[in-house]
Amino acid sequence: MCRFRWIFALAALLLVAPGVRAASNSADVAHLHVQLVFPNRNLNVGIPADAGLYFKLEPGWHVYWKNAGDSGEPPRILWTLPAGVAANAIEFPAPQRLPLGPLMDFGYENEVLFPFTVQATTIAKAGPSLLHAKVNWLVCRDVCIPGKADLDQSVTVIARPPAVNSISAADQQLWQRLANRLPQPLPRGDTAVFQPVSTGFRLAVATGRRESHAEFFPEDEGILDNPAPQAVTSTANGLILDLKQDADLKAAPAQLTGVLELAGGRNYRITAMRAAIAANPPSGGASVGVAGMEGMSEAAPATASAFSFVQLLSTALFAFLGGLLLNLMPCVFPVLFLKGLALVQSGSEERHKLRMHGLMYTAGIVVSFWTLVALLLGLRAAGATLGWGFQFQSPVFLTLMASLLFFLGLSLAGQFEIGLTLTSAGGSLAAKQGYAGSFFTGVLAVVVATPCTAPFMGAAIGYALAQPAVVTFAVFTALALGLAMPYMALTLQPAWTRLLPRPGAWMDILKQAVSVPIFATVIWLAWVLAQAYGAELMAALLAIFLLLAIAGWFLGRWPARRPATVVAGLIVLVACAAGIVAPRELSSTAQLPPESPTPGRGAAWQPWSADALQRTLAAGQPAFVDFTAAWCLSCQANERVALDQPEVMRAFGERDVALFKADWTREDPAITQALAALGRSGVPVYALYAPGRSAPLLLPQVLTPGVVLDAIGKLPVADAAPGANSGSEQR
What we know:
This protein is of the alpha+beta class and 731 residues long. It folds into 4 domains: 5-182, Thiol:disulfide interchange protein DsbD, N-terminal domain (Immunoglobulin-like), CATH 2.60.40.1250; 191-274, no CATH class; 306-587, no CATH class; 605-713, 3-Layer(aba) Sandwich (Glutaredoxin), CATH 3.40.30.10. The chain is 40% helix and 22% strand. Strands 14, 15, 16, 17, 18, 19, 20 and 21 form an 8-stranded mixed beta sheet that branches. Strands 1, 4, 7, 12 and 13 form a 5-stranded mixed beta sheet that branches. The protein has a 5-stranded antiparallel beta sheet with strand order 2-3-5-11-8, covered by helices on one side. A hairpin with a 2-residue loop joins strand 2 (26-29) and strand 3 (32-37). Helix 4 (333-345) packs antiparallel against helix 7. The longest helix has 31 residues, at 351-381. It is globular.
């Protein structure tokens, strides 16, 4: 409810004009002309028709935006429509600031068009129809006058194609002149985040160029001190906007939603996530910043460099520990089996050769991490919005990776030899192949490990990707060394190799056994592909597997024969081509499966969106967000071990916690931006929001029912489940 409502009541008693009953689609009333605008007077079934509510105002008078500012009310329409005809809510163009004494309103002068759409469904009766709109508004200058009008619009419902247009030239001219004033989404690659400061909020916007002018219009009332000036500080790639908070605001919001006006009349809808530090950073760990927030901190510059150095050291330590723990993740198990087999085969080699194997394995991991980070930073610099593990959001990558591991599994199972042993080669060539094998085993370890964000890794990755390139590479080098350390330590300590068994016939059995986790990984990748892109792409993957099995049969039936090798190579090339073309063709039309309810005392998971989360918190209801992906094994394990347990779901229901699932299986810039605002760039992430809290509580990345129940127990007990009021009014 807006403030200063008593002003409107007094104005209504003194100046309100009687309601106007209009027999047409327009009315001339006190200080304005109001009109329904329908460029096309025909409604073709199933095709939304553009329409609008138009106001022409006398000089000095104004109507209001969706957030009227310090006083006022936006226009509303209450429809009476024929069966089968529906009208969407009106949309609001970018507003302007309207000072009124000590107050500041947000609205429109001169003229404004509020667009909306009308659509006829298959149950609508064909032929002429009458749409009736009861329009209410508040028009103000020095005083405010409520107004209303009943407007009728005649249309014709067209039931069958071809679509027929009945154009109103005057309405079409109004539409073409005014309908393009709606604020646009923030361009891809641009970002907006904010941070609470002592006087209010500091909004950082990155547009890729220096900005000199900005005004922010908040959608929510009671957030900003509307009359206060908004100081603009230009940056190399955007601006920083200082906003003064409302004097009655008790706690900073989780996000700022509204319209941002930049120089040249550019208006954008933005949802700036809060760039606050997580409420429970790892003990002893450094806080995590967000890209684009440089210069926003109010800390003294003299301490910034020292703090950053300490932060870098602690983050590198957590990255190293995360790399060590990553060896225990199920994503990496098949690769460790492969490396263990190679180590057993090379156990009789000289010590310096064992060390060289360790160095090459480490080099493969380090180079792979560097390559992935360079690619990620390069794509972000070019405007892409990506996070860690982004390659698993690509159907081409998933298809090719599953095919590669399937072909490798066939070789390990004994269908053909791919040259994994050193016994059939001689001298220096064998050594060269062995070192190359160690290097590319390290590469494979990194490729399959990236979707598993181990404990301690989330904060390190989020911090590193928000820093200059030198810092980013330093942190990821520490992560790579942690991943390589167990095998490297074994090769650097020759005494430990005495524990390894001597080569023998048992090695063939071990090699075949290693194919089991390889094929298990293939099944997992195929499941991820089916979850994200549907059964058609899964069928294409199985066809590629068939081609690879035929190629393997040629290699096994006629080993070391040139014709067989050529035929097998051609088949493999065809399979690779199919692995590139099929995902691109089939994934473009694939739809994600609908979300299914999760068992638990009335609680059900619903798809996450920033707007849905904000509405939930605004209604006084706590919320839990599961940032997850089908390709993240840690996510799947946490859901089954902790989140889906009956006692956990019961606790969610008792505290009336809204459950949101942010599914990052396929690329979603909104989820990527939300992760960045939490100081993370990969999944899993678990955020528990409570109304009135300045920041969400971030749970650990390895969950147990006790961890989740402890976090839920910190929420205030709900007195009653909030109700939902519904109405037929549209703003």
